[in-house]
Design brief:
This protein has 364 residues and is an all-alpha fold. The protein is built from eleven helices and two strands. It has a two-stranded antiparallel sheet with strand order 1-2. The radius of gyration is 24 Å and the shape is globular.
Length: 364
Amino acid sequence: MQLLPEPVRRLAAWCAVLLLVAGVAWVGIRLCAELRTAVVPVLLALLGTALLGPLHRRLVKARVNRSVAAGLTCVAVVAVVGGAVYIIVAALIDTGDQILASLKTAARDLADHFGAAGTSLDDMASNARELLDKFGGTAASGVISGVSVVGETLAMALLALLLVFFFLRDSDRATGLLHDLAPRGSAGMLEAMARRAFGAVEGFMRGTTFIALIDAVCITVGLLVLDVPGALGLGALVFVGAYIPYLGAFISGAVAVLVALADRGFVIALWALGVVLAVQLLEGHVLQPVIQSRTVQMHPAVVMVTITAGASVAGILGMLLAVPLTAAAFGILHELRDRYDVQRPGGPDTQQPGGYDAQGSGGS
């Protein structure tokens, strides 16, 4: 190695590090895929804990027992989620036929306009169903033999809810457990990294939920004003799609415009497109900077690549989990960068961003 020039040795060292990191990441992904029935509920429970943490802390500050507060929080989330699912399902059942009929009409009109009048809608539906089966197969590959997807999903949802209860109830013990398990001298750094990562996920979940609600309400009101059929169902689709940044908004907005085009004509479709674009501009230039200003900010290109990678690994579930997990990773990287800057000559030597000193203890 001494015969090689210094730049070549550095390049070789970096290549070795990258290969090692890639190998460890690949092994981790494979292990998560094999243990997905346990890993997925844990990840969902962490997201739920990040979203429900403020409510639980308020109950505890009101001198409610931690177990009772965690139970009330879980009951509240079950009631809210159950009610939301009921409203969404009811709206989609009531307007689903209208939406599907409008989409078929729009597809037929577009096929006629672009000279594909001979294309069979049955063939298109068959091809779409085949693609959906392939995509769903990616998301549910390797499911335990003999267990249906619905049963497995319900079991994972129940496990995630129970884990949310325990995570909320025992959150005050997390720091002590981390200090007990961490190698000597690294507990402070690990605690700061965990706090930064969880804070990023917490901010992302709260901000995304609030933004999704605003988007859904604004687009639903706009579609109701334009008298577009299935406005409530389309608004529900917008709310759910908002948890997949960029891609979800694009798909739900495109569906709304196509329904307006098929049922109300070209002019109303343009107005619907204007409503969707206005809401997206409001989200991108006002809501995102204001609501999520304290969370980890990621470039749209990074988000799109992350969503694509998540879809290739775990289908729709991977798309939902990819962005918050990436936000947590960015939070850890920012914490490491801040600590590295502190150790550099001339850097701040007493206080860390986020309220942690150089030893990782909590600042007031």
